[in-house]
Amino acid sequence: MLPKSLILLAPLLLCAASFQDALNTAVSATSSQQTAPSSSATPSQSSATSGVKEALSLGAKQAVSLLGKEGGFLNNSAVKIPLPASIKPVATAAEKLGGKSYVDDFVKTMNTAASKSVPKTASILSDTISNMSVEDANAIVKGSNTAATDYFKTKAGAKLLSAIMPIIKESMNESQVMSSYQSLKGFSGGGSATSGISNNAMVGQASSLAKGLGMGDAVPSGDENIEDYIGRKTLDGLFYMIAEKEKTLRSNPMASGSSIIQQVFGK
């Protein structure tokens, strides 16, 4: 028969053994968690990429929608394309002699060409977003208020210009303004070399040409290409609108209605 003291200690020994087993299990589990590789980095990088892509997509879609409609450039003072500064004297002369409506017509022609070309940028902007790397996304999140817009400029600027130029040229060719513009260039180049022509006579010729043209802003210098000018200004307007949307999303991500944008830019 077991001693009475051993019988009394048996339950205590069993409890101690059970406690030790539980403690060993807990220590083992904690050790496994500490040594297991953390997977938190991957979701965070994935979230950053998704958030930036969604923000870029929102900005691009809004810009294309607003600028690509009728009057998109013309009726928006922030992006409205002015006449080149190189032909302002001729425009001023035309306006003084009753040719303001022609100047206004030319401004409308340029801005209409820009609006017609903008929808062509949508697919390029979309492809640029799709091809964004994790590194690009992280740099954008940590970058300035227009880092995403700058990404568009760097990655897609040349492609966008190539895409819109044919449409701009087609729009300008459909208008009689371009033939008058070419005449004006010839006049401004020859007139300056003709010392026998009085200022009044030059103003008269400028007015005559401008009335068939509607130009405003200044005498063209050298071989300036009005179509290239419109192309550059079109992209300036597009990037401006995207940048404004990006600033809004960064400053108030809650207003986006997107949980992923809130998660990335709401920190």
Describe the model.
By secondary structure, the chain is an all-alpha fold. It has one domain (45-265). It contains eleven helices and no strands. The protein has helices at residues 4-35, 41-67, 88-96, 100-117, 122-130, 134-142, 147-173, 177-191, 199-211, 226-251, 259-265. Mean pLDDT is 74; it is low at 5-17, 25-43, 183-204 and 213-223.
Key structural traits:
267 residues; mainly alpha; 11 helices; elongated
Topology readout:
Elements: H1 4-35, H2 41-67, H3 88-96, H4 100-117, H5 122-130, H6 134-142, H7 147-173, H8 177-191, H9 199-211, H10 226-251, H11 259-265
Brief characterization of the structure:
This protein has eleven helices and no strands.
Strand content: under 5%
Biggest sheet layout: none
Structural class designation = mainly alpha
Number of E-state strands = 0
